[in-house]
Amino acid sequence: MFYKDDRLAIFIDGANLYAASKALGFDIDYKLLRQEFDRRGKLMRAYYYTALVEGEEYSPIRPLVDWLHYNGFCVITKAAREYTDTAGRRKIKGNMDIELTVNAMELAPHLDHAVLFSGDGDFRPLVEALQRQGVRVSVVSTIRSQPPMIADDLRRQADNFIELDALRDIIGRPPREPQQVET
C-alpha cells in the first residue's frame, strides 16, 4: 500500500497512540517510527499532537515533547484544562482533534498518503474528506487490545488498517532490564 515516490505525512494523536501501545505492553521508539515511514515514502511531515498540563512543576510528557521537537517532528501542543467531574474526581481535558484535522486538510493537496496514528472514531469524517481529495489514508491502531482501541467505522473508512502490534518489532523500544539495587 506504500509506494517509494509517495508524498507522505504522519499524524500522531499522542494520547491515543500512548494508550494503544500501553494496552499492547510496549513503548514506541519515535526515532524508529520516523525512520520506518521515511523508508516507506517521501516523508513530508511528521506531526505529534498532545495536550500539556500547565502549571505543573514536572510534566512526564515534557522530555518526549522536547525530544520530538529537536528530532524533526512538528509538535503541536495546547494547554490541557483541569476540571472536577460530578463524582468529585480530578480530570484533565486536552482534545487535539481539531488541530490534527486542520493540519491534515491544509497539507492534503501536497500529499499522496496520510498515516493517522489514532483509533478515535471522530476522525472518520477527516479520513473521508482526505480520500475525496485523492489522498490514500492508512490508520494505525489496534484491535488486539481488550477492548479494541480502534473504532470500527474508522477502520472500515481507511484505505489501509495497520495493526500497531504488527509494528512492535519495527518501532517498539526494547524492554528495559530491571536494574539491580546494590546492597
Report on the architecture of this protein.
With 183 residues, the chain is an alpha/beta fold. Helix content is 33%, strand content 27%. It has 7 helices and 7 strands; from the N terminus they run E-H-H-E-H-E-E-H-E-H-E-H-E-H. It has helices spanning 14-24, 30-40, 62-70, 97-107, 124-132, 152-157, 168-171, and strands spanning 7-13, 42-53, 74-84, 90-93, 113-117, 136-141, 160-163. Strands 4-3-2-1-5-6-7 form a 7-stranded mixed beta sheet. Strand 5 (113-117), helix 5 (124-132) and strand 6 (136-141) form a beta-alpha-beta unit. The longest helix has 11 residues, at 14-24. The model has no long low-confidence stretch (mean pLDDT 92).
- Multimeric status of the protein: single chain
Overall shape:
globular
Q: Give the biggest sheet.
A: 7 strands, mixed
Distance between the termini: 54 Å
Class from secondary-structure proportions: alpha/beta
Low-pLDDT stretches: none
Strand content: 25-35%
Helix content: 25-40%
Mean pLDDT: 92
Give the H and E element order.
Answer: EHHEHEEHEHEHEH
Question: What's the count of strands?
Answer: 7
The whole-angstrom Rg is: 17 Å
What's the number of helices? 7
Strand order of the largest sheet: 4-3-2-1-5-6-7
Protein name: NYN domain-containing protein
InterPro entries: LabA (IPR047140), NYN (IPR021139)
Organism: Paracoccus rhizosphaerae
Domain NYN: 7-165
